[in-house]
């Protein structure tokens, strides 16, 4: 590292141990890139020393390591050994030759106000004493030196003399600040030093062939808080053109090239490399360019990169940019010297390891090399805070980036060799320090991709690596669309690690709890039956069974749940069951989300252990809330299909399993069970027509009565019967059939031989208005064939022949309204309108009507009224419909309900 840290005093005195590249004028200029500003500095100073016009006092104002000391050494060598300097750097031959020049060097790093100096053979105690001793005129300031009192201008003019004189002051601020602590009578040594420097500048300005060049830091921050001193020293030169910056902009890369590489190889190779990198960038940018302007910008960016690679070879220009523009904002960074020290270590490590890369870019830095790592931290600072970060996420064997390397390189030796995960993580580490003016720390995805692309690597692979790193790296943060490493743990990684501690059963228990919460309040739900016995049988309620997330058709076929009821016994209520099949991918998402929610909650419970900040706690709470929402949404979509057994029309099997795809149904704002019910709505009904009930009951001369319990069993057992959500549907249908005199109903039964007979005929209900709640669906209640119901009721109003007369007449039994004689007009005794007389009644009606879609609602009203009236009705329907109808939906929604209601004579579709 010392190779790139010039020591002006050491070079001036020829001190041993100084690198020959600094002490030898020829070697120095061979290794020096003569920047534009440095050449101007040399020219101006030599002109003044030769008696020309120009500024006699010049200030070098650059950041640490910005070339100040190097420029002073360049002046020293040009004055001392002009021939060797020009031989090594012919560009110097046109600069004026002042002849023999007396030189004095005052280095704030070397001189100590508390210790005498004797390098000249004369013991001196102050800057003016040392200056006079170097110029051979110590006697002029001896008393001033011993008393510590700065001499005036006249004395200093005598010390300088009339001949060409060059005075070089390096790091003056350091000396003055140290001297401020030393008391000198009513003043301080530092104050006297400031008076001396000010008087010296005035004395030199008055001498026609004298020049002074002194160096200052570039900012208050770099002056270590000595803001007042820096300001005072800065004001020693008033003219702007007297302030020089030896190295600026892209000249840094030229300096680096010259200092690090003796020669750069075949220029044809440079052009090939530049063209290859340009082609890679062009291809990636054009792939995402959607407009003509974007394509032109892609071409321009690629052409610009080609030119910059040629200029910066063998260094990637983005590496130099981030060091100059980003690290340059750091107080610890030493511009040119820092770039040289860091890149020297990097190049050495890559050379020693035999690494092969067309360019040295941000992703090529070998942080496993101790020297490279040390030079990096020396320039960016934060060694203590970030050493563990670098080790954890980049250099250790267990770092997340090595996992990404293996994952991405598993199927491609080329990608494996590029170590994409480590490449990207390394670049992000470099970009994590400093920032361009007006920007936050870190690197945008687009800039990062461009800086790590090499021939053979594509943008998609880099993006994949980035996404994987966000999951694997503990200290990698993605904030404000920028990637950067922070000394605080990445909560995403912490949450993921915490999540990995949870076992599958814990997570599955939470999944079930969430699903149970979503299904809560719905009747007839069986959740995750492990065996057919887990689904209740002989329960007159349509059951929807949600199968376990790990259910497999191969292991537990659906037919097993339909046909069995546990312990080998067959299922009776097969017509009252639907199976909802899991979507394993959605359940995996649900498990993942719930695992993250549990992990975030666990970390929140341990916040004192991790010493989380308020912002981190808030972020964890947000992660938990997001995971809760994601888990709920995934569970809501975790079932893809509902299947239901329906009657087989082929006769090869008693039933077929008919599926409905839940994924095609609108899910927004609707719960899972709502969508299942809707999917089943064309197969499972909440009502049944009286005609259907009568037809299914099969009543007639040969079967005059059926118990309600048997009827319920038939509905839930046989596929020929309509599937019903609830047995109350049957009760409602019975009530409607009794009201319309299509069926009778009786409670209290006796079995006579093979027939079911009402125990008391007076309990037969026929043609009466009943509610569903009044219908008993037990085996002690029955529905009766309408003729049989009339017979039973007739027996209650006509006494049998020769029946004995009781002493007191029996109370008259009420006659059902449907059988009572109708009054012939007028009003009833209570004043209500009387029922219409027979001659006012409609006995037979034949109606033909043609309706469009808007008339369907009124048709439903008309048919509903007709179904509530006594008497018989036969309805013939002819439907002509045109439109784009889904064939399956057309069949399920229109044709089959009609088939279930009556006989469909013909269906003709095109």
From TrEMBL:
Signal peptide extent: none
Entry-linked InterPro entries: DUF499 (IPR007555)
Biased amino acid composition, Low complexity: 799-810, 821-838
Domain of life: Bacteria
Protein name: AAA family ATPase
Annotated organism of origin: Streptomyces djakartensis
Region (Disordered): 799-839
Biased composition (Pro residues): 811-820
């Amino acid at each position: 590292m010392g190779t790139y840290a010039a020591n002006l005093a050491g070079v001036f005195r020829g001190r041993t141990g100084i690198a020959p590249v600094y002490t030898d004028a020829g070697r120095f200029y061979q290794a020096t890139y003569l920047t534009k500003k440095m050449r101007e500095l040399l020219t101006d100073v030599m002109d003044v020393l030769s008696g020309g016009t120009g500024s006699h006092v010049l200030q070098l104002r650059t950041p640490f390591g910005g070339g100040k000391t190097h420029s002073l050494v360049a002046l020293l060598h040009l004055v001392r050994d002009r021939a060797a300097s020009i031989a090594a750097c012919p560009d110097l031959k046109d600069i004026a030759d002042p002849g023999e020049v007396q030189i004095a060097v005052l280095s704030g790093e070397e001189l100590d106000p508390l210790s005498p100096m004797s390098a000249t053979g004369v013991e001196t105690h102050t800057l003016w004493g040392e200056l006079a001793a170097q110029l051979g005129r110590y006697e002029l300031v001896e008393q001033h030196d011993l008393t510590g009192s700065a001499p005036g201008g006249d004395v200093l003019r005598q010390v300088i003399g009339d001949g060409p004189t060059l005075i070089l002051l390096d790091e003056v601020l350091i000396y003055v600040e140290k001297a401020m602590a030393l008391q000198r009578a009513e003043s301080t040594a530092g104050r006297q030093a400031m008076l001396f420097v000010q008087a010296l500048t005035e004395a030199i300005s008055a001498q026609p062939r004298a020049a002074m060049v002194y160096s200052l830091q570039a900012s208050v921050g770099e002056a270590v808080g000595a803001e007042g001193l820096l300001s005072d020293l800065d004001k020693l030169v008033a003219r702007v053109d007297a302030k020089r910056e030896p190295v600026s902009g892209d000249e840094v890369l030229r300096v680096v090239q010259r200092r690090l590489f003796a020669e750069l190889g075949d220029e044809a190779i440079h052009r090939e490399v530049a063209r290859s990198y340009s082609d890679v960038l062009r291809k990636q940018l054009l792939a995402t360019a959607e407009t003509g302007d974007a394509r032109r910008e892609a071409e321009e960016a690629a052409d610009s990169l080609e030119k910059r690679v040629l200029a910066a070879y063998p260094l990637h220009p983005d590496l130099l940019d981030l060091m100059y523009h980003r690290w340059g904002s750091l107080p610890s960074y030493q511009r040119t010297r820092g770039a040289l020290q860091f890149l020297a270590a990097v190049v050495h490590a890559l050379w020693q390891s035999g690494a092969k890369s067309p360019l040295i870019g941000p992703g090529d830095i070998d942080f496993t090399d101790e020297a490279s790592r040390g030079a990096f931290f020396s320039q960016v600072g934060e060694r203590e805070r970030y050493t563990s970060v670098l080790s954890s996420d980049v250099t250790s064997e267990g770092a997340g980036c090595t996992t990404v390397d293996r994952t991405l390189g598993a199927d491609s030796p080329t990608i494996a060799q590029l170590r994409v995960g480590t490449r990207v993580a390394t670049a992000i580490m470099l970009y994590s320090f400093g920032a361009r003016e007006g920007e936050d720390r870190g690197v945008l995805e687009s800039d990062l991709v461009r800086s790590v692309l090499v021939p053979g690597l594509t943008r998609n692979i880099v993006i994949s690596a980035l996404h994987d790193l966000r999951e694997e790296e503990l200290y990698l943060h993605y904030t404000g669309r920028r990637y950067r490493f922070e000394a605080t743990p990445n909560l995403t990684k912490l949450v993921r690690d915490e999540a990995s501690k949870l076992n599958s059963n814990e997570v599955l228990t939470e999944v079930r709890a969430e699903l149970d919460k979503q299904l809560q309040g719905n009747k007839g739900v069986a959740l995750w039956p492990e065996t057919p016995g887990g689904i209740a049988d002989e329960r007159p309620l349509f059951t929807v069974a949600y199968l376990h997330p790990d259910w497999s058709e191969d292991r537990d076929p659906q037919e097993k749940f339909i046909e069995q009821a546990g312990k080998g016994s067959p299922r009776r209520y097969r017509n009252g069951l639907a199976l909802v099949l899991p979507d394993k991918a959605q359940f995996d998402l649900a498990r993942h989300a719930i695992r993250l929610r549990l992990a975030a909650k666990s970390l929140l419970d341990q916040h004192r252990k991790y010493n989380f900040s308020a912002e981190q706690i808030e972020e964890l709470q947000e992660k938990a809330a997001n995971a809760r929402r994601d888990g709920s949404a995934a569970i809501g979509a975790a079932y893809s299909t509902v299947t239901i057994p329906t009657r087989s029309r082929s006769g090869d099997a008693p039933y077929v399993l008919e599926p409905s795809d839940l994924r095609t149904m609108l899910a927004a704002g609707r719960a899972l069970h709502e969508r299942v019910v809707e999917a089943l709505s064309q197969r499972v009904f909440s009502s049944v027509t009286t005609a259907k009930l009568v037809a299914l009951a099969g009543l007639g001369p040969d079967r005059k009565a059926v118990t309600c319990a048997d009827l319920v069993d038939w509905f839930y057992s046989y596929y020929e019967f309509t599937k019903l959500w609830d047995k109350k549907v049957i009760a409602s249908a019975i009530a409607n059939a009794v009201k319309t005199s299509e069926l009778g109903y009786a409670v209290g039964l006796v079995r006579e031989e093979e027939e079911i007979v009402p125990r008391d005929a007076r309990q037969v209900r026929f043609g009466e208005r009943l509610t569903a709640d009044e219908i008993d669906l037990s085996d002690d209640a029955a529905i009766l064939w309408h003729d049989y119901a009339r017979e039973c009721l007739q027996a209650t109003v006509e006494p049998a022949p020769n029946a004995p007369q009781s002493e007191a007449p029996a109370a008259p039994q009420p006659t059902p309204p449907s059988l009572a004689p109708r009054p012939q007009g007028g009003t009833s005794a209570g004043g209500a309108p009387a029922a219409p007389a027979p001659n006012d009644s409609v006995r037979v009606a034949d109606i033909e009507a043609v309706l469009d879609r808007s008339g369907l609602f009124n048709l439903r009203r008309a048919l509903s009224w007709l179904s509530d009236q006594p008497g018989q009705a036969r309805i013939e329907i002819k439907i002509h419909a045109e439109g784009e109808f889904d064939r399956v939906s057309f069949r399920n929604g229109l044709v089959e309900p009609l088939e279930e209601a009556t006989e469909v004579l013909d269906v003709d579709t095109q």
